Fold this protein.
Amino acid sequence: MPFLKEFTDFTKSPPNWGALFLLSSLLSVLPVFAQNTSEVVTLRTAPSDSTNLTIPPTAPLPRPEDTGIVSVGAVSPLVPDQPTPTSPSLRPENVGIVPIGTTSPSVTSPAPVTLEDSDSPPRSLEDFYGPNEGPVFRTAVGVNLLQPWSTRFGNQSIYSKTIFNPGIRYDLEAGYNVLPQLRLSVEGDFIYNSIHSVVWENDTRYGTGSFYQIPVLFNATYHYLSQGPFRGYVGGGAGANWMVYQSGTALTEVGTYTSYQWNFAWQFTTGFTYTIQPGFDLDIGYKCLSMPNPNFADFGTSRALFNHTAEIGLAWRF
């Protein structure tokens, strides 16, 4: 057989190591160069050797599309229901990018929003904090501190000083807010302090005694308006004060003593209010009530008398 004879001659000849090394190198890179073909590859071992080595055709290499690798922009056959690679919303002309020299497509403006008309008027501060003008009623209670009262009796030869214990004051006030900032009012109060002691010259005496005051005052108060619930105020008033002085035997030289008299009085007040509900305020304030020249029967010249009161109250604005 011709093939057998050629193989026998090949085995009897001495080995050619260079040809074998070249053959192994070509066999290692042959899959890269051999594409999908059925041609027979024939290699010659050496230029001086007439023996040819025939290599059968290799199996075809897999195509990229058979492995799921596709070109950019192509649809993969292995993924069903795949969206179109190029989305119309991302086209340059749809995002405002157009080639030079091309007219930009018109941009559609959104339809204007139409606001419905409302029959109700806009709300004001009075809807939240109540009316600023109109009638007002106020009531308050507080602690009253009455300063010691110094006086002289008879021919001014006997000096006396009365010391009072802390007392109480109760107010009732009716007024009208003629302006948002200005209130005019009439106030009637009741003030009570007990007597702690009486000093006669250098002799201090302790006993029972009371001092009552019922002032009636006409006031004018200015309110500082704000955009919130807090409002400050300052004011003053003047009127008359009905004063009653009572002391027991241990306090005086002449035994039990009672005297009452109307006296001119003036008042200073300041504080702030907090609106709890529209038209309903919490009132915290300070009042100073003074009688410049208090006068009682059998009393001589007296120094001015001062009351200092810290009080809390409620006010209604209608």
